[in-house]
Amino acid sequence: MLRTSRIVFVCVACTALLTGCVAYEPVPAYYPSAPPPAPRAAPTFDRAWHAVLDALHENGVRVATADFATGVIRGTKDRTDLFVSVARQANGTVQVEIRAKGPQGPDTGLASRISEAYQRRMGV
Predict the structure, then answer these.
(1) Sheet of 72-77: strands edge to edge?
(2) pTM for the predicted model, two decimal places
(3) pLDDT given for residue 28 in this prediction
(4) For 77-86, b where at least 16 C-beta lie within 10 A, e where not — what string?
(5) How high is the pLDDT of residue 71?
(6) What is the mean pLDDT, run by run of 10 residues, along the chain of 124 residues?
(7) Does domain 45-122 have CATH number 3.40.50.2020?
(8) Less crowded by CB within 10 Å, the N or C end of the chain?
């Protein structure tokens, strides 16, 4: 009987020791993806307006009228008439239209130089 109780005691002790060992699963880790690039801020009307005026001055255009309220700028360079429209869009963006008309018709060279100077100032 003593021998049997020792065997039972040893079996219970071994079982108790084995139940104390626990192996935990690794915790699933969350690795957030890189944040998306920040969207470019839509140019404000004021910023676009001043960038257009600076682009006109850089290209030697004499501004005859500049009406901030309507967004219309008229000017001349040599014998070329310029019309610039800065308009707010419904989606919050700003649209700039540049037209140059000389004695022989549209002057696309001057208009594109003004457009490039405007885009440099806007960081495009």
Answers:
(1) 62-67, 72-77, 80-88, 94-102, 105-106
(2) 0.64
(3) 79
(4) beebebebeb
(5) 94
(6) 74 66 74 76 83 94 94 93 94 91 84 93 85
(7) no
(8) N
The domains of the chain are located at: 45-122
64: DSSP letter = E
What pLDDT, on a 0 to 100 scale, did the predictor assign at position 105?
81
DSSP 34-55: PPPPPPPPPPPHHHHHHHHHHH
pLDDT (0 to 100) of residue 74: 96
CA of residue 35 relative to chain centroid, distance:
13
- The answer to whether 75 and 56 are in contact (CB under 8 A) is yes
The gap from C-alpha 6 to its chain's centroid, in whole angstroms, comes to 78
> Which two tokens mark 104?
């022989």
